[in-house]
Amino acid sequence: MSKKIKVGVIGVGNCFAGLIQGIEYYKRRKRLQPTHHPPASRAPKIIGLMHQKIGPYNFDDIEFSSAFDVGKNKVGKGLDRAVFASPNLVNWLKLLKSKTIVKEAPVLDGIGIFVENKINPVKNSTSIEKLEKEVEKEIKKTGTEILVNYLPVGSKIATEFWARLALKTKCAFINCIPVFIASNRKWGEKFERARIPIIGDDIKSQIGATIVHRVLARLCRDRGATIDRTYQINVGGNTDFLNMKEQERLESKKISKTEAVTSQLDEKIKPENIYIGPSDFIPFLGNKKLAFIRIEGKMFADIPFSLELRLDVDDKANSAGIVIDAIRLAKLALDRKIGGPLISASAYLMKHPPTQFTDEKAREMVEEFITGTSRQ
């Protein structure tokens, strides 16, 4: 059994740029370590990784074997060059020359009106059916076994296209955006029948607004307090936030983020007393994301309290820190011939999983899945 995990990426944007450059960063750090390694129990923890190893798989076992995009300045280029092409902003370090060439993907609904002039998409010169065959051929030729969906928010038709291709090519599917596939019963059953694993939906950042908001909401519940009103306002300066200025593309995103927080509470908050979602695009912020969270409620003797928090993070490092685990968990499922939505991985890593759990419980479930004491 090959230890390499062959991954195909759908959307060579900022999120993926952070993932591939981050893996290279850790590889270089590993090469600088002394050749004599202490026992695993005494090995130094690698900062930024939730799991240095998952089953037999280390972070440097991930290999990007195929890539698909719609940007004219990315299609046809080697992956090592495409990740630095405009409008990408992640530029942490140079990459070694890659044999993987970015192939043309169908545009479908993947480009919003606000980002079209920044991305300059290809005009698909062939039919969707023919393009699908070309993509299928590339996946099979490269031995790709896991597809990571990094399309822009609102790409429902395009995401369903790639979900069907994952089923057709027997690739595990990691859905990083809020189009409901893993959490949709019909889609989940399709992956289960095909014995193909899927993790989704909508990536939950490593230290992001939603995970922090969830933990605070759970804290209030566990300490006997109520939450009467709350908001989470997010702003950023990359194409992700520019794309989300188009309100029609935001419906599932708001549902995903809101349910991720309210799932931690026993009592529902009235719709008019909660707002969670992307709020605006501020160009000079670049890949920086600012989140503003406020909670108002009551504690002992109905005495009111309020809490405010400002979070300042790099949006793309946040995503990469989660996907690096999702890939290895999907590979474990492939090795064990487990199909359908991976309940534990989805609950721990995604905002809108098939079933919500507390983050503490979801982490326990993931550890049980890694050790093989649980199949889900």
TrEMBL record:
InterPro entries per UniProt: MIPS (IPR052199), Myo-inos-1-P_Synthase (IPR002587), Myo-inos-1-P_Synthase_GAPDH (IPR013021), NAD(P)-bd_dom_sf (IPR036291)
Ranges for domain Myo-inositol-1-phosphate synthase GAPDH-like: 208-315
Signal sequence segment: none
UniProt record, GO biological process: inositol biosynthetic process; phospholipid biosynthetic process
Database matches in SUPFAM superfamilies: Glyceraldehyde-3-phosphate dehydrogenase-like, C-terminal domain, NAD(P)-binding Rossmann-fold domains
Gene3D superfamilies referenced in this protein's UniProt entry, alphabetically: Dihydrodipicolinate Reductase, domain 2, NAD(P)-binding Rossmann-like Domain
Pfam families the record matches: Inos-1-P_synth
GO MF annotation terms: inositol-3-phosphate synthase activity
Recorded family membership: Belongs to the myo-inositol 1-phosphate synthase family.
PANTHER family tied to this protein: INOSITOL-3-PHOSPHATE SYNTHASE (PTHR43125)
Entry protein name: Myo-inositol-1-phosphate synthase
Native organism taxonomy: Bacteria, Candidatus Nealsoniibacteriota
